[in-house]
């Protein structure tokens, strides 16, 4: 039983399986991959969440972007090695199949289904908000009942009509009025987010007709986006007041680190590049280069934007949803605010496009392996795209984007992404130990972690004992049941570090993948309990699907039967 659950695919098997299937168009070069990576990374974050991060941490948040990029490098290097070793679509799912076996690969693939779908729902709804704002700036007013979800409008209507002295914002009044103005079918008010659903349908159609067309659209949008960002940086530099950079870290380290989650997720788009491996001209050479180039370019952009924002206005004023437009309007440059509004729509569209390209290709790879219905690996004879999977991905994202509110999806993100990152970093250790690294065209630089992992653990413990008395006091004050509920993940982090220290000493593990594992595991401990509960429910559903369908129809199961 255990052997069948953790049976692995060799690199040769994976390459053979992909070559036996209908081929995808190999049209992507390094420039195209970098463009797709920038499209994914420089999305809504640079136009919205960067403001809140700057508000909490001050100008020093620019250093947080550098630190986070360095942290991402360890994971990106691991992805790059796997991409050069197993140059097929599937991302972390395929890599886990090689390193850890079928069950773990299924769990990762199932987690990625959730991550890609949910993130695109959020992006689509966010796009709608920016689009509506942009159209209003041009004097075009879309009826509110066509731009929001039903539950948000209903909640606002109920609050306005049952207010017992509580404050009602002007925006809530607008939403309540939208509920009243909406047409009805019987007693049901017809309210849905038309822009969010429509952009998903249009992007899905673009993904369906070809990677070449998607590449062209992505390249154009990225060029426009980078031009606007460069214009913002250069133009904003003339309005910087150096006194706004003092104090540089007004809220100390705690204020800077409060933006870790938002800043980290600004960078994770680099993994979406690996889903296009079979459409690369030379994936073993180009994918590693593209991943590193993306991180370097985007880090420079984020740092410069942060310094310009915090230099143009005081950081205390940046707790707004549109910080780039805000700082220019504060300096009397209202025309720039309009330009930024348009570019933000373009930026979010390009991010939506990249993730909508990635999801069907993961399904396609899982289907090839027999773990999902065969239809998902169907390649369109004319467009050479995973046609059925692309349509399903569009429906899965568009329908919720039409009818649900963003808050519903926020807690569904994060856990699976970190889990995938950890296993990819751990997989590199497996490649090194089994000698499979000899097949890698790109390798994570080897730094012997025999002593360094343990020394790092000892140093961390000493620092906590010396400087972390408030943290220790908090732990001591918690009853045992609450300690388990709220601190279990932190315990797992420290236990994992201890185990890795011992194993690294025995096996001479490479240091860099271990750093990647520990960084991602630590960030997992910072996620809320609701994230974990939803992820576990999703995981249980996935295990049912695997044992009822995937395990039986697995290609490896067929191979075993033939033997």
From TrEMBL:
Where is the protein found, in the record's own terms?
Membrane
GO CC term, one of those recorded: membrane
The way it spans or sits in the membrane comes to: Multi-pass membrane protein
The yes or no answer to whether the keyword Membrane is present is yes
Q: Which UniProt keywords apply?
A: Membrane, Transmembrane, Transmembrane helix, Transport
| Gene3D superfamilies cross-referenced by the UniProt entry | Amino acid/polyamine transporter I
Q: Which InterPro entries match?
A: AA/rel_permease1, CAT_C
Superkingdom as given in the UniProt entry: Bacteria
Molecular function GO labels: amino acid transmembrane transporter activity
**Primary location:** membrane
Enumerate the spans annotated as Cationic amino acid transporter C-terminal domain: 511-554
- Annotated membrane-spanning segments are 33-55, 61-80, 190-211, 223-240, 252-270, 290-315, 335-358, 383-403, 409-431, 451-472, 492-519, 531-549
Give yes or no: UniProt keyword Manganese: no
Show the PANTHER family listed in the entry: CATIONIC AMINO ACID TRANSPORTER 4, INNER MEMBRANE TRANSPORTER YGJI-RELATED
Q: What is this protein called?
A: Amino acid permease
Q: Which organism is it from?
A: Rhizosphaericola mali
């Amino acid at each position: 039983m255990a052997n069948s659950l953790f049976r692995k695919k060799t690199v040769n098997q994976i390459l053979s399986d992909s070559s036996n299937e209908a081929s995808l168009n190999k049209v992507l070069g390094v420039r195209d991959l970098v463009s797709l990576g920038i499209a994914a990374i420089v999305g809504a974050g640079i136009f919205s969440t960067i403001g809140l991060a700057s508000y909490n941490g001050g100008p020093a948040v620019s250093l947080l972007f550098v630190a986070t990029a360095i942290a991402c490098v360890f994971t990106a290097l691991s992805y790059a090695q796997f991409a050069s070793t197993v140059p097929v679509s599937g991302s972390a799912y395929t890599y886990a199949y090689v390193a850890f076996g079928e069950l773990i690969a299924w769990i990762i693939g199932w987690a990625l289904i959730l991550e890609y779908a949910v993130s695109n729902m959020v992006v689509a709804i966010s796009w709608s908000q920016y689009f509506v704002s942009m159209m209003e700036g041009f004097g075009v007013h879309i009826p509110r009942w066509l731009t929001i979800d039903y539950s948000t409008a209903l909640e606002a209507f109920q609050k306005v009509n049952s207010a017992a002295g509580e404050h009602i914002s002007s925006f809530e009044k607008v939403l309540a009025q939208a509920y009243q103005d909406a047409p009805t079918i019987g007693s049901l008010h017809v309210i849905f987010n038309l822009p969010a659903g429509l952009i998903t349908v249009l992007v899905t159609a673009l993904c369906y007709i070809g990677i070449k067309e998607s590449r062209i659209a992505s390249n154009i949008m990225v060029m426009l986006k980078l031009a606007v960002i460069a214009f913002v940086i250069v133009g904003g530099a003339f309005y910087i007041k150096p006194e706004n950079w003092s104090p540089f870290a007004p809220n100390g380290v705690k204020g800077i680190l409060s933006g870790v989650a938002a800043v980290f997720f600004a960078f994770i788009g680099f993994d979406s590049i690996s889903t296009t491996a079979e459409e690369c001209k030379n994936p073993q050479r180009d994918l590693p280069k593209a991943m590193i180039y993306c991180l370097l370019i985007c880090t420079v952009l984020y740092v410069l934007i942060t310094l310009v924002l915090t230099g143009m206005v005081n950081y205390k004023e940046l707790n707004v949803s549109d910080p780039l437009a805000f700082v220019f309007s504060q300096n009397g440059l209202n025309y720039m605010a309009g330009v930024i509004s348009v570019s933000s729509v373009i930026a979010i569209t390009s991010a939506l496009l990249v993730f909508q390209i990635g999801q069907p290709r993961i399904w396609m790879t899982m289907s090839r392996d027999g773990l999902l219905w065969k239809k998902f690996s169907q390649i369109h004879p004319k467009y050479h795209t995973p046609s059925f999977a692309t349509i399903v991905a569009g429906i899965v994202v568009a329908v919720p984007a039409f009818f649900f509110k963003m808050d519903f999806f926020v807690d569904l993100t994060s856990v699976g992404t970190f889990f995938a990152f950890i296993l990819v970093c751990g997989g590199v250790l497996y490649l090194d130990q089994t000698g499979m690294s000899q097949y890698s065209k790109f390798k994570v630089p080897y730094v012997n972690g025999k002593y360094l992992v343990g020394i790092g653990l000892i140093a961390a413990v000493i620092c906590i004992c010396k400087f972390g008395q408030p943290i220790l006091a908090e732990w001591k004050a918690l009853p045992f049941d609450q300690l388990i509920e709220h601190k279990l993940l932190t315990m797992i982090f420290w236990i994992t570090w201890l185990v890795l220290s011992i194993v690294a000493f025995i096996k001479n593990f490479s240091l860099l993948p271990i750093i990647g594992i520990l960084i991602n595991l630590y960030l997992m401990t910072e996620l809320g309990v609701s994230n974990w509960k939803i992820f576990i429910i999703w995981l249980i559903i996935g295990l049912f699907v695997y044992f009822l369908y995937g395990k039986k129809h697995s290609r490896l199961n067929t191979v075993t039967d033939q033997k």
